[in-house]
Specification:
With about 290 residues, the chain is an alpha/beta fold. The chain has seven helices and 13 strands. The protein has a six-stranded mixed β-sheet, covered by helices on one side. The chain has a five-stranded mixed β-sheet with strand order 3-2-1-12-13, with helices on one face.
């Protein structure tokens, strides 16, 4: 089997609060994140970057950002992964920058949009801040789109991933659709024909996929709780369940895989080498 050129882990909608606090009075989001990180630690797969795609905290508490960093960075160090943060509508720009110790230009206000480019080997990861303080839907202004166009003007050897919290696509859930990225056609014009291989989003609290300008859009499973895409009539419902995404890059392709952490009991747990040998014996031509 050909190994991917790079593997990216996406963790989204962690919604951390001060340790011990429970979201909606029942969800221990700190415990959820701990389980996600334990899952990654046990795998020891080569990871180029861990991308946290917004709603890192539930209310923008500086202490919550510090807690998040203290949890994520050790796992990233063990995996040899770069940590990449993005803003979500529940985040606060100043607390986000200060709590995570993110460098910023002294001439840039702490409350300015957090748009940044990371180079991970030949892969370029572009983070766009689709938030507007005081609003839960997504917006990108003209200056951000001009900046993105300039960034994408020269292709990167390994292509690019675009990260923004708000999906630039419609949702089958009315409440989620109401809070998506506004006027996504502007973004579509900028990325059309670019080297962007995939757009990584969160916000919706369910796993989904679509495309914009022929570019795959991936809505990663949340690390906090799940929205029900098929709720009882007239209801907006969420339930327990969380996970993360594995994004593997193979040539011109980006393959997204949702990983459930809770709610799945083991059906089997076997040696990989034994399973591969069994599969080879059943396959006329081994790959």
């Amino acid at each position: 089997m050909t190994a991917p050129e790079a593997t990216i882990i996406q963790i989204t909608d962690t919604h951390l609060s001060a340790e011990g606090e429970r979201m909606h009075g029942m969800m221990d989001t700190t415990s959820n994140l701990r389980q996600v990180l334990d899952h990654l630690d046990a795998s020891a797969i080569p990871v180029a970057a861990i991308v946290l795609s917004g709603d890192l905290t539930d209310a923008g508490s500086p202490a919550a950002y510090e807690l998040l960093q203290s949890m994520v960075e050790p796992t990233a160090d063990r995996l040899g992964a770069k940590v990449i943060y993005a803003m979500g509508n529940h985040d606060d720009r100043a607390s986000f920058r200060l709590g995570l110790g993110l460098a910023y230009n002294g001439s840039t206000e702490l409350g300015a949009p957090y748009d940044v480019v990371h180079q991970v080997g030949g892969l370029r990861i572009v983070v766009l801040d689709s938030t507007t303080p005081g609003h839960h839907d997504g917006h990108l202004d003209g200056a951000q789109l001009d900046w993105l166009a300039a960034v994408l003007e020269d292709p990167s050897p390994g292509g690019a991933l675009l990260v923004l919290h708000h999906p630039p696509i419609r949702s089958p859930i009315t409440t989620v659709d109401f809070l998506r990225l506004v006027e996504p056609a502007h973004l579509e014009r900028v990325i059309s024909g670019s080297d962007v291989k995939m757009i990584l989003c969160g916000h919706a609290h369910y796993t989904g996929a679509a495309a914009v300008a022929g570019i795959p859009v991936w809505l990663g499973p949340p690390a906090s709780y799940r929205t029900d895409p098929v709720p009882p009539v007239g209801r907006h419902r969420a339930g327990i369940g969380h996970g993360f995404s594995r994004i593997d890059l193979f040539g011109d392709s980006a393959v997204a895989t949702a990983v459930d952490v809770v709610g799945v009991d083991e059906v089997y747990n076997e040696s990989q080498s034994v399973v591969l040998e069994r599969l080879r014996s059943l396959t006329p031509q081994a790959r």
